[in-house]
Design brief:
Elements: E1 4-8, H1 12-25, E2 30-35, E3 39-41, H2 48-51, H3 56-59, E4 60-62, H4 63-66, E5 72-75, E6 78-82, E7 87-90, E8 95-97, E9 100-103, E10 108-109, H5 117-120, H6 127-142, E11 150-155, H7 159-175, E12 179-184, H8 196-208, E13 211-214, E14 219-222, E15 226-229, E16 235-236, E17 239-242, E18 246-247, E19 259-260, E20 263-266, E21 277-279, E22 284-286, H9 297-315, E23 330-334, E24 337-341, E25 350-351, H10 353-371, H11 374-380
Parallel strand pairs: 1-2, 1-9, 2-5, 9-21, 11-12, 11-17, 12-13, 20-22
Antiparallel strand pairs: 3-4, 6-7, 7-8, 10-18, 14-15, 15-16, 19-20, 23-24, 24-25
Helix pairs in contact: 1-9, 10-11
Length: 384
């Protein structure tokens, strides 16, 4: 009897795993792809939509353009997973049975119990989120003047926060809109946990774009108009975007799998505490020893290739490969500019300018080409 392999999620990990799994299985098992939307979002470029909603057509890749005809796609929200019965529940009441499953559902925004944060902030985890930020910024700008500019606050100065702030600045400058932008971070430096040279280069470009930076002062509360800090003065806002952290999906809470805050624990081969369930991306906490993988698109791409292959090997009873993360460098955009750091083969550890911008575009274009076609990647190039 042909076995069924189910992949949950259409993010980088899920979409990448589908491509790898199709190639590795070569028709030896039935593949079912389940996701809550019928497209893959190029999330690390979704901030471009904040400036220009027309970019959505470039960063949304239809699942039909990614998968093969033999892979069955089901659009639905995952409500739960029963590892004992090998069954996935969807929010419409239907179920999907599996012989092997790969969890790649991504994450949800973490609010750390800060009062009012979830109720009063926007997030940047989806296309709809980016469009809502765009609309809120437009509305705030319309109601502001040069004497009383709109206040846009980005909470969290990680990758998403920095890139979102850069896009708001690009929107402001192109439209000559009266907007002040604030990037706030609880930890002592922006882009926490990264090389100080890279942090300094990003800080320089953010300040050049007239983005106010506040660090080492956690948000303690937020209401419908004001953000409160541990030590600094309250900050009134017209638009507030929170990008400060991630946590697991609630649908995994009762999955009978070892997990930490609904992020499933896996070995370096992506196998969970259940030998027929695998997990990757933000849904997983992967045991890589002393060199954990960062929660980035780059890591998800690398993991997806090995995970897809390992799922195919599991269906055949073959030994599984072990994955180790290999950094290919860091690329961060600040509006139309970009900063590159740690790029293999580069004699300069951190650089900006046209070279960094082309590299950033190239990474996005290569992913789009690998997932769909070179033609689609070429059409997206100018907006990346």
């Amino acid at each position: 009897m042909t076995e069924t392999v189910v992949v949950l999620g259409a993010g980088y990990a899920g979409a990448g795993a589908i491509k790898s799994l199709e190639e590795s299985l070569d028709g030896d098992a039935d593949i079912v792809w389940v996701a809550d939307r019928d497209y893959h979002l190029v999330l690390h470029e979704s901030h471009r939509v904040i400036r220009n909603p027309d970019v959505r057509s470039k960063v949304c890749l239809p699942v039909e353009a990614i998968k093969s005809d033999s892979t069955r796609f089901i659009e639905g929200e995952v409500a739960g997973l029963d590892a004992d019965d090998r069954e996935i529940a969807l929010d419409d009441g239907s179920t999907v049975s599996y012989d092997y499953a790969l969890i790649a559902l991504g994450s949800r925004t973490a609010y750390y119990g800060i009062p009012g944060l979830a109720e009063n902030s926007l997030t940047l985890k989806s296309l709809d989120d980016a469009l809502e930020i765009h609309e809120r910024v437009i509305e705030a700008a319309r109601e502001s003047t040069t004497e009383d500019p709109a206040q846009v606050v980005i909470g969290g100065a990680g990758l998403s926060g920095i890139q979102a702030a850069g896009e708001v600045a690009e929107f402001r400058d192109r439209r000559h809109a009266p907007i002040e932008i604030h990037l706030v971070e609880a930890l002592p430096e922006i882009f926490p946990g990264n090389d100080p040279e890279l942090q300094g280069a990003l800080r320089k470009r953010l300040l050049e774009r007239d983005i106010h930076i506040s660090t080492d002062d956690p948000i303690t509360e937020a209401d419908e108009s004001t953000i409160y800090f541990d030590s600094g003065d309250p900050l009134e806002y017209d638009a507030f975007v929170w990008t400060g952290g991630i946590t697991g999906r609630d649908c995994l809470a009762d999955a009978n799998l070892e997990n930490n805050h609904n992020r499933v624990n896996t070995e370096a081969n992506f196998r969970t505490s259940d030998e027929r369930v695998f997990a990757i991306g933000d849904s997983a906490i992967i045991d890589l020893g002393e060199t954990p993988a960062p929660p980035t698109a780059q890591a998800a791409w690398q993991a997806a290739e090995v995970a897809g292959s390992n799922l195919a090997r599991a269906t055949r009873g073959q030994p599984l490969d072990t994955w180790s993360y290999e950094s290919k460098g860091t690329l961060v955009s600040v509006g139309e500019e970009a900063v590159a750091h740690g790029v293999p083969g580069s004699p300069i550890s951190t650089f900006g300018g046209p070279a960094a911008k082309v590299l950033k575009k190239g990474v996005a274009a290569r992913w789009i080409a690998d997932m769909t076609t070179v033609q689609r990647a070429a059409r997206a190039w100018s907006d990346m």
